[in-house]
Amino acid sequence: MRIAVASGKGGTGKTFVATNLFNVLSRRGERVTLADCDAEAPDDMLFFSAEKVRETEVTHQVPVINKDACTWCGRCSRWCNYNAIFYLPNAKVIEVIENLCHGCGACSFACNSGAITEKPVVLGAVTTFSTDVGSRVVEARMKVNEMSPVRVIKAAIKESGDEGIVILDAPPGTSCPFIQTVDKADYVVLVTEPTPFGLSDLKQSVETLREMKKEPAVIINRADIGDGCVAEYLEKENIPLLAEIRYDPAVARIYSEGRLVTQEIPAMASLFEKLADHISEGYGTVGQNIRPTWKWR
Amino acid sequence: MEVAVISGKGGTGKSSVTAAFATAGDRLVVADCDVDAANLYLIFNPEHGTGQSYIGGHKAVVDHALCTVCGICESYCRFDAITEQEGKIMISETSCDGCLFCSRICPMNAIKMVRSDKSRMYSGSFRNGMMVYGRLAPGEENSGKLVSMVRDEAKKAAGETGMKIILMDGPPGIGCPVISTVTGVDRIVIVTEPTMSGLEDLKRVFEVTRKFGGEVGVIINKYDLNEAMADRIEGWCAALGSALLGRLPYDRRVTEAMIAGKSVTEMFPDAEISKLLKDIWNKLITNGKE
Ligand code: SF4
Ligand code: SF4
Ligand code: SF4
Ligand code: SF4
Q1: Kind of pairing, strands B187-192 and B58-62?
Q2: Is the ipTM of this complex over 0.90?
Q3: Predicted confidence band of residue B287 (pLDDT cuts 50, 70, 90)
Q4: Is the domain of B175 the same as that of B270?
Q5: Domain boundaries defined on chain A
Q6: pTM listed for this prediction
Q7: Cβ pair A256:B174 closer than 8 A
Q8: Which residues form the domain of B165?
Q9: In the prediction, which pLDDT does A289 show?
Q10: In a shared domain, residues B74 and B191
């Protein structure tokens, strides 16, 4: 089963929820994998000391043009839908702009003169770690100065498989990287803040998920810093509220140092235990709008 | 002069800082380049002068009446978007990258490309100048093209009104939309928070700005959540020769102001945080080049 933990905007506590939920499930001896799909800012591993098991580079194939064989027909440049081939036949200039190339392979197919070969270019890496209790963390990490994290995210989700429980820490927003991640999830938990910014992003996430025929559940983080706008919206839209977590400087401090609150604050541990119960038992009924029988205030 | 406010990750308070800057001094043009989660309009409520649609990427669609299920498209698509299911060719909208390859090689001409036009760009006036913002339709590739369109419109607005400063609220992360936001700007402000993840993300986004952008300064927001970590970040800034613009305390009034549809400098002008923000803004726009 795959659970995505997501948020319309970053910084609402998505990583906080994903890492602590994972910790609690690991401690119970569940077969669990945490996949950090926020490939532009992968931070989950800051919270665990785990052994690196395997690292795989994620590459795509980028064209290499042999000018001597080129007959200056221009087909490759016309077939490229990303303007990645800079072509000036009169000046005898033809160059691949690697930063714009998506590695689709159209240009090498288009060339009838055998002037195009391909080479792999590294986009990022997928690394698998094993914790001391046998659970796994799979990290997607996009290389700095690359344009899109999507291929790296896809590779990490593949690596995570679907055995036991897989927690996907999703990238922020509702564009392509987010869709790629939640598309594979059986259950989506949105973490939000009770503020106008939080609500606006939450609405966008919910609408996007509903278009994908997915019904999310929501956790409100820093529940006491804003107003009632998010709770009202959830009520109106019949979206289950899984938990409300109050702002607590002690929690913020533990988090800031890369530690886990479920290891240090008993009340937090019991909150996440309940969340874990709910997820390992009750997820099957989500979508029929179950209200959890407990709530943290 | 163009100033971009960014952060390696979301939720560091970047938009609240931008809102404060936007209302701290002279009239200016505000550009919300966080097109995937545009929020500033909630505070500035711009009067919609104009709206324009932005034509997004292509998506492949099969015409089953023409398709002979020869499988050629499936074998060439490098994005694993095409599969054969129960004797039918299916193209996954979420996986299709819009490269057009399949539509060019299909022997039956059975694949058409469609484009989404649901993304929008708006521009209008707000109480301290002009505002331009984009809203990316869900599922679109966040390619930075909409960001460029927002930047161009902001420059046009600045030219027409004679306002000298363009202030941009950037997207989170380090990918294409961030690169589009910082390329060629005069000043970059990175807003971070005193956490381990804040520091890691700061390092990564700093590397991007070094390659593509202008002069970089760092603000440590909510520094009092963990002062030791704030010191560590400050040390790191010094080592890399990037200026520390200031430390801001955690203050619930920032959220209170947001709920009231205002910036903290507007609603609580005498608060310490408002004074700090005004100082930082004045320093940013006065000293150095221009
Ligand atoms: S591989 Fe695709 S994106 Fe890259 S240059 Fe060739 S046609 Fe363009
Ligand atoms: S398609 Fe081949 S021959 Fe034609 S311009 Fe491109 S590289 Fe040269
Ligand atoms: S290449 Fe064309 S005809 Fe062949 S399977 Fe694909 S869509 Fe159908
Ligand atoms: S347009 Fe490109 S990515 Fe989309 S289905 Fe066709 S070959 Fe695959």
Answers
A1: unpaired
A2: no
A3: low
A4: yes
A5: 2-57+126-287, 67-114
A6: 0.88
A7: no
A8: 2-54+126-285
A9: 33
A10: no
Choose the closest CB to A200 out of B39, B198, B201: B39
Output the domain CATH number for residue B188: 3.40.50.300
For position B71, which CATH number holds? 3.30.70.20
CA-nearest of A249, A286, A206, A283 to A21 is: A283
Say yes or no: B132 and B238 in one domain: yes
Residue B51 CA: distances (Å) to CA of A92, A229, B9, B39: 42, 28, 29, 17
Question: Who contacts A121 (Cβ-Cβ below 8 Å, separation ≥6)?
Answer: A59, A60, A61, A62, A98, A101, A103
Closest-CA residue in chain A for B195?
A256
Counting every residue written for chain B, the total comes to: 290
Spacing, Cα A85 to ligand 2 middle (Å): 10
Are B48 and B80 within one domain? no
pLDDT in tens, A131-183: 888 899 999 999 988 888 999 999 999 999 988 899 999 998 888 889 989 99
- According to CATH, the superfamily of the domain at A2-57+126-287 is P-loop containing nucleotide triphosphate hydrolases (3.40.50.300)
Domain count of the fold of chain B:
2
Q: Is A140 left (phi over 0), alpha (psi -120 to 50) or beta?
A: beta
Q: Report the separation in Å between the CA atom of A108 and the middle of ligand 2, taken as the mean of its atom positions.
A: 9
Residues of chain B numbered 149-208 and touching chain A (CB < 8 Å): 171-176, 179, 193-198, 200-201, 204, 207-208
- For the domain made up of A67-114, give the CATH fold: Alpha-Beta Plaits (3.30.70)
Give the list of residues 6+ apart from residue A266 with CB closer than 8 angstroms, or none. none
A172 is written with which tokens?
């922020």
Q: How far is the CA of A161 from the centre of ligand 1 (A)?
A: 30
pLDDT of residue B197 exceeding 70:
yes
Q: Give how far B272 is from chain A: nearest CA, Å.
A: 19
Do B44 and B67 belong to one domain? no
Report chain A residues whose CB lies below 8 A from the CB of B37: 8-9, 172-174, 200-201, 204
Task: Specify the ligand 3 atom closest to the Cα of B84.
Answer: 5
A45-98 pLDDT, tens digit per residue, is: 999 988 999 999 999 999 999 999 999 999 999 999 999 999 999 999 999 999
Band of the pLDDT at B126, cuts 50, 70, 90? very high
Q: Answer yes or no: is B290 within a domain.
A: no
Q: What is the pLDDT of residue A174?
A: 86
Q: Strand, coil or helix: what is B112?
A: strand
Closest CA to B230 of B198, B257, B185: B198
What's the pLDDT score for residue A242?
87
What's the whole-number average pLDDT of chain A?
A: 89
Contact B179 A147 (CB under 8 A): yes
Residue B121 within any structural domain of the chain = no
The pLDDT value given to residue A252: 87
Flag if B98 and A147 touch (Cβ within 8 Å).
no
Distance from CA of B286 to the nearest CA of A (A): 30
Query: Atom 2 of ligand 3 has which residue's CA nearest to it?
Result: B106
B213 touching chain A per CB within 8 A: no
Tokens read off for A170:
């999703």
pLDDT, tens digit, for every residue of B130-170? 999 988 887 777 678 899 999 999 999 999 999 999 999 99
Interface test with A, best of B99, B103, B267 (most A CBs within 10 A): B99
Contact B195, B6 (CB under 8 A): no
